[in-house]
Amino acid sequence: MENRRSPNSILTGITFFLLMLITGVFWGTWFTLTRSLSEFPDTEFIHIGKVIIANVGVPMSILMPGGILLLAICVWLNLKKKLPGFYLGVLSLTLIVAVLLITLLVLVPIDNSIKTWTAVSVPQDFESIRAKWESYHAVRTFLSLASFACFTAFSLMERRSR
């Protein structure tokens, strides 16, 4: 008997890879930088913010929708099976959609403001904006980690059921 990969396992592997990239971007940024941003003066925060926004904007606008779409397809393909792992897939999808919503509804508007700031045009409520930016980055990071963990368990259980 040949050991061929099914289209479902290939799809799961690609989805796993995309979620790994998405989560890695958030984890790496949070772990190495976001936790320390309050240590930087406002001008350096603006500079760092602009660089990060420029670096991740386009790639993440492709990776996130792609990862979410493939994750939704993986869950849908397992809909009829209703194995215990199915609900982990649903939870993973729910969490990564929450990550996308936090990004689009909270962080992108802040990022768009940061892109317009200069050293002389720092808003008076800069500290509260930075605190909001930091806290939502942390929430987004840990939701993406939870989504990745749930998808990992989902894919292992789905594989075991084959």
Features:
single chain, 162 residues, 4 helices, mainly alpha
Description:
With 162 residues, this protein is mainly alpha-helical. It has one domain (10-161). The protein is 80% helix and 0% strand. Helix 1 (7-32) runs antiparallel to helix 4 and helix 3 packs antiparallel against helix 4. The longest helix has 36 residues, at 42-77. The radius of gyration is 19 Å and the shape is elongated. It starts with 6 loop residues before the first helix and ends with a helix.
Task: Tell me briefly what this model is.
The protein is an all-alpha fold and 162 residues long.
How are the SSEs placed, and which strands pair?
Layout lengths: L6 H26 L9 H36 L6 H31 L11 H36 L1
